[in-house]
Amino acid sequence: MEALGQSLKQLWFAFRDLLVALAELLAPWLPLIVALGLWITFWTCAVNWERLRRVLLEGGWIGLVLVGLVTVLVWGTVDPPQWREIRTDDGRVFTGYLLGRTDDTLRISGADEPIAVERIASTDTYHRLLGLKVSNYVGKTVYVTALICIMLLCGSVQLAGCCRVTDPPQPVSLSHSHAAH
After folding, report:
1. Between the CA of residue 33 and those of 19, 39, 142, what are the distances in Å?
2. pLDDT tens, 54-72?
3. Alpha-carbon distance 159 to 53, whole Å?
4. Highest mean pLDDT of the ranges 28-42, 103-117, 163-177
5. pTM of the full predicted structure?
6. Per-residue DSSP letters for 68-124?
7. Angle (nearest 5°) at CA 139 between 155 and 55
């Protein structure tokens, strides 16, 4: 009986270690997971897709495309990619995420020590998507297109009948017309 208790105790500790390792693995991705969860919840549960579908079919898709293009342009201008490829004047190449910058040094994830700014021959920023190097605006276009596709998939789920969203009830007017009296 004591062996069974010891085995259950070891099983509990192994399960706890598994949960801790899983939490450490997912912790950096938590903001993205929460944001996508909110995005999916909004477009699935808060939007009446029967009405929105009619609007999109009557020409509203042009507005959706224009909003997407403006989003790509603004997002690409405001937030350039943080992945850097830095070549120094002595021929060394560093690649990694930009961790910090001071007036005379850069810290990136691929370098063990800060890189002196005066030794940098060139720097290149890009997105890494599915093993490809793509430029800033192409990367942002992929992200915005993915968000629009997720939005439309949420609409398809709602229109297929998996979840229903009804319009809120309209307030009833209590004033009666007394014109007949």
Report:
1. 17, 10, 18
2. 999 999 999 999 999 999 9
3. 9
4. 28-42
5. 0.69
6. HHHHHHHHHHHS---EEEEEETTS-EEEEEEEEE-SSEEEETT-SSPEEGGGEEEEE
7. 25
Assigned domain for 115 exists? yes
Tell me the C-alpha distance between 76 and 141, whole Å: 9
Q: What is the pLDDT of residues 28-38, one digit of tens each?
A: 889 999 999 99
- For residue 97, tell me if it sits in a domain: yes
Strand, helix or coil at 146?
helix
Instruction: Point out the least confidently predicted range of 44-53, 119-128, 134-143, 149-158.
Output: 119-128
Amino acid at 105: T
Tokens coding 129: 């998507």
My answer on whether 113 and 90 are in the same domain is yes
